Amino acid sequence: MTKNSTELAKTLTVGQAIGLAITIVVGSGLLVLPGLAYQQVQGAALYAWIVDALIVIPLLVIFAFLGANFPSAGGIAGFLQAGFSRRAGAATEVLLLGTFSLGIPAIALTGGNYFATAVGGGEKTAIAATLGLLLMAGLVNFLGAKVSGRVQQVLAFTLIGLLVIVAVVALLFGDTTAGTGVPPLAEWTNGLPVMGMVFFAYTGWEMLSFTAEEYRNPKRDFPIAVAASFISVILLYLGIALAVQLTLAPSNEHVTTAPVAALLFSFLGEASGRFVGVLGVVIIAANLIGATWAASRLVFSSAREGLLPKVLSRLDAGTQSPRIALVSVILLFSGVVVLQATKVISLQSLLQVAGQNFFLLYGLSVAAYLKLVPRTSYKVFGVLTLLLVVAVMGTFSWWILYPISLLIIGYTVSGLRNNQSKLEELHQNG
């Protein structure tokens, strides 16, 4: 690869891909949503976790197919562009930018809250820690994909093991009568109001798609990374969610900000709660490394395609990574954190909107899949999955207007830029 190449270096192995997938998916969704969902719908929250897990399976099958066969730094936008047109890809890029700019700061804010819980600090401590976590994620990625991939692999398997221990210990030694428990299966529909928010915990695989261009063997490694990470994540989520609503009361002061820390604090005391608080910060740090990696690749790809300024598509000669794009997303995310700190938008709203946006992005991926697959049987599977997505979207609030607006803006701006390019070409030829 030459130094002037516009393609990213192919450095990811299958082991690093699995580690990256796990750390991208597991983050604030695990560390805060079990408590938020539990507070809103009590014990029925567990059913929201289960239904969302079932819903995501066909979506991941589609993601595995698309990532293996159409690897691109553009991720989902690249899928839409391959299936439909550049304007469809551009519209998706704007939606992704609008989604990442809410979801990733929400992840960082969750880490800041866990840090404040661990050290006994207040709101200012949490905000300072949030900005510090974003800076750390930027610095690790600044060193290049090879370094970041190795860090992700080590963190993923260590942290997942520790969190499994937390869930098991809480269920075995905690007071399982302190919470509301799990209601009868007939009441599963009571969990519907939080399904959109809980789905945020099942996002991340779409971020993984932005790294497909950097796999050594994407056709083999991408599906393996998706499947292995899904099994690990589901078991972990259900264990933590069950432990929260069996051993914690909805009125617990930490249930909506640091429920995992509250699990051990409830029966082992302050020291254990602080230990889990530190663990939560490390998990968020790992999650942010992968998330900012994905976001910088989106910005890089969008600039390479002409939607964003070309300067953002420059690659560093040494690491062959988009450092300018990386710095730009860290600054953007930090700005959103400041808005949350000044009460312009709440953490719950960030999670709610990002979760709904990500679900819509899964739907767009299904549409691209329907366009790209050749076999009728595959198309039938895609249609059934799309109907499922549309049905779930019926439970979303008026916030759905936000992603729809982003799609319209992206599609319109891309058309205007395309017309401008044609006029400039005609002028040059004339």
How would you summarize this macromolecular structure in one to three sentences?
This protein is mainly alpha-helical and about 425 residues long.
Task: Tag the structure with descriptive keywords.
single chain, mainly alpha, AA/rel_permease1, 430 residues, transmembrane helix, membrane, transmembrane
Overall description:
The protein has 430 residues and is an all-alpha fold. The chain contains 17 helices and no strands. The radius of gyration is 21 Å and the shape is globular.
The number of strands is 0
Structural class: mainly alpha
Number of individual domains: 1
Average pLDDT figure: 79
Envelope shape: globular
Distance between the termini: 37 Å
CATH homology group? Amino acid/polyamine transporter I
Number of helices: 17
Q: Tell me roughly what share of residues is in helical segments.
A: over 70%
Architecture, according to CATH?
A: Up-down Bundle
- Unreliable stretches covering 5 or more consecutive residues: none
Which CATH first-tier class would you pick?
Mainly Alpha
Radius of gyration: 21 Å
Profile the largest sheet.
none
* Strand composition percent: under 5%
Q: Kindly report the CATH topology.
A: Amino acid/polyamine transporter I
Could you state the order of secondary-structure elements as H and E?
A: HHHHHHHHHHHHHHHHH
